[in-house]
Amino acid sequence: MVNLGKILNKKAVFIFAIILILGAGGFFLWQEREIKGSPDDYIIKEITDGKIVENKKAGLSVKVPEGWEVEKIEAEEGSVAFYFPNTEGEQRNEIVSPPLKNGCIIEISVVYKKMNFEEIEKEVRAIHWGLRIKSEEFEEVTVNNRSALKNTFDSGVLGSAIIVYIPSRNKLYDFDLYWALDEKEKCIQEFDKFLETASID
């Protein structure tokens, strides 16, 4: 969720939430919008070959990477965080958050708002002013045959991250990746595999 929309409405209680909100997509928190989702929309289910996270209301499902931990973020419309084994970072109220010392974190969220790439980029740039951005890049990419906007940045507050925004009708799907300094390549590979498991209606 520095998920632009990532954050969008996700974390509001802890600093973790606030940081992710600011980094991922916190700008949504400051815009007028109707709250249409809930943390209860996210269900973590056991399947024959592991676990999946489903949000039937949003038409979203993803497979939990093998060996990773998964945790719901109980704030506003909710989000879900996935932790690579032995991930270490800032410890806030027993929640590991960026910047990371070891491992990777992937976070997913959904904002019920129609936005195009230009609007997303404008909102992300507006919220990033408080994150001490050292470098930032936007590019249009394809994820599972869907057009997406990829934001790669390095922040003095959150460390390095990639946020992938996938707009679809009246929703914006947000996929965030944060990694420890020396684990970029491994974490990006895991993120790419994770995105391949994402199903969006």
Order of helices and strands: HEEEEEEEEHEEEEHE
What fraction of residues sit in β-strands?
A: 35-45%
Number of strands: 13
Counting copies of identical and different chains, the oligomeric state is single chain
CATH H-level name... which superfamily?
Answer: Mog1/PsbP, alpha/beta/alpha sandwich
CATH architecture: 3-Layer(aba) Sandwich
What is the helix tally? 3
Describe this structure in words.
A hairpin with a 5-residue loop joins β4 (69-73) and β5. The protein is of the alpha+beta class. The chain has helices spanning 15-25, 117-127, 184-196; strands spanning 43-47, 50-55, 60-63, 69-73, 79-83, 88-92, 95-102, 104-111, 133-143, 146-155, 159-168, 171-179, 199-200. The strands form 3 sheets. The chain has a 7-stranded antiparallel sheet, sandwiched between helices. Strands 1-2-3-13 form a 4-stranded antiparallel sheet. 17% of the residues lie in helices and 44% in strands.
Question: How are the elements arranged and paired?
Answer:
Elements: H1 15-25, E1 43-47, E2 50-55, E3 60-63, E4 69-73, E5 79-83, E6 88-92, E7 95-102, E8 104-111, H2 117-127, E9 133-143, E10 146-155, E11 159-168, E12 171-179, H3 184-196, E13 199-200
